[in-house]
Amino acid sequence: MELPQALTAALLLLVPAAASAQVERFAVVVGNDVGEPPDVPLRYAEVDAARMASVLQEVGGVRPENVVLLQGKDADTVRRALIAVNERVRTAGRSTVLLVYYSGHADSVALHLGPSRLELTELEQLVRGSAAAFRLLILDSCRSGALTRVKGGTPIPPFEIQLGERVAGEGAVFFTSSSASEDSQESDELKGSFFTHALVSGLLGAADENGDGRITLDEAYRHAYEATLRASSRTVAGTQHPTFQYDVRGAGDLVLATLEQKARGRAWLELPPGRTWLLFQDSAEGAVVGEVASADRVRRLSLRAGRYFLRGRAPDVLLEGTVELRPGATAQVDESTLTRTAYARLVRKGEGTADAVTSLEAEARMRTALVTGGGLCPGVAVGISVALRSVTITPRIAWCRSSFSNVDLSSTVDQYDVELSLSYVWDLRAISIELGLTVGGALLHQSFQTAGEAPTRTTAALQLTPSLLLSHDLGAKSYLFLGIAGATYLLRSEDSTSSAESFGPSFALRVGLGFGVRL
Hints:
Elements: E1 15-16, E2 24-32, H1 45-58, E3 67-71, H2 75-90, E4 96-106, E5 110-113, E6 116-119, H3 120-128, E7 134-140, H4 146-150, E8 170-176, E9 186-187, E10 192-193, H5 194-206, E11 214-216, H6 217-232, E12 243-249, E13 254-258, E14 266-270, E15 276-281, E16 288-292, E17 300-304, E18 306-313, E19 317-325, E20 330-332, E21 339-342, H7 343-349, E22 357-367, E23 377-387, E24 392-405, E25 409-427, E26 432-450, E27 457-473, E28 478-494, E29 501-518
Parallel strand pairs: 2-3, 2-4, 4-7, 7-8, 14-20
Antiparallel strand pairs: 1-13, 4-5, 5-6, 8-12, 9-10, 11-13, 14-17, 15-16, 15-18, 18-19, 19-21, 22-23, 22-29, 23-24, 24-25, 25-26, 26-27, 27-28, 28-29
Helix pairs in contact: 1-5, 5-6
């Protein structure tokens, strides 16, 4: 492998819809996180295998005693398990289906099972040579597409399988997670590989395009292909193309999973459109159960009754919460009951999909006098705030006007500021606390009203201002903020009584109340 990414192989069952009740199903599910040197250890290959074994028993019609789950085993153990299951298939005395799944390291020649290798040609012979009427082999591993290419398959886009005409009642089908020249990839967020995650989600209902409760070969492949393409296109390694190759004859729709409306111990969860929903068992730290993407037309999954944590992603907000599923019931997610987190917070936590969130801000300000005898300076400021993972950067322009008067004259001072603020933000439950430092320059234009002559004056100043700001989200795209700053200006000033000029720092307190809109 060129990148430390996961490989997974999924075996699923193909069974004619009309005869599914008479078919005995067997599964050999293999996962190995360790390959041969210099393979980088995987994190989720064995987890993917456990998920696949569980789904096959839950909705795939494979009885627990007919599932062989091998995690971290070598090639000889896998070989002997396949031979033993093939013997059980041969003596079953009824129509059978063989499901073989592998998740782990591989190349275009062999599976890497720790320090041992299982040649793809041998694996194919063990599957094809089985006495089962249907054999399905799915490999989620790097360059696994070599298996389909050897038999004439090539990386192909989703296609419509005419099940009654081209796919038959017995034979062999091969799914692979990538083409012969690609790396398969795993995700820390999904806690598994893109391909197996998409396939499992599809079998739980996301692939049920016609809503008949049966996940067919065409539906499963289409969903896995499109979901894997969509997820992997956003990664550094690039797009991953699942492949498909079949050798079947006869007639009948091939069904991979059956989702009963009132299945014992199970429930349906319906998810709102426009978001990508990820489901975890019990809590956010629990195992990933399934996903429904924003682009998916099917918006419901069949799940075991129990407690689930939901995470919904929209373009500008993250929705999180829990839902309890009761056996035999259908639950609909109510977004109003979920916690909403704007993506600016997610970016700062390192959890958002974007690297930055940009906002437009407008602020009403009030500054105390810079010089003795000066007045308050009310004004406004506008800026663009860019929230990054480690810092928030905000360039602004501002204006305020103050006035002064005595028995001889009165004056007005217009101040124009250009500022750049850098701040660090702590996000609390209801508010965010922002501690920052502002640097910038200012022009102060002073005009006089007097019975005599008094020319206007323009003075330049430098600004250095520490600040404290509190903000509160009003919704996914808007927020209010309140700021207080100790403004320090370095400028030339004139005493109003003695007319003596001086150059040095002047200090003032500034407060502001503003409104922001995230773009």
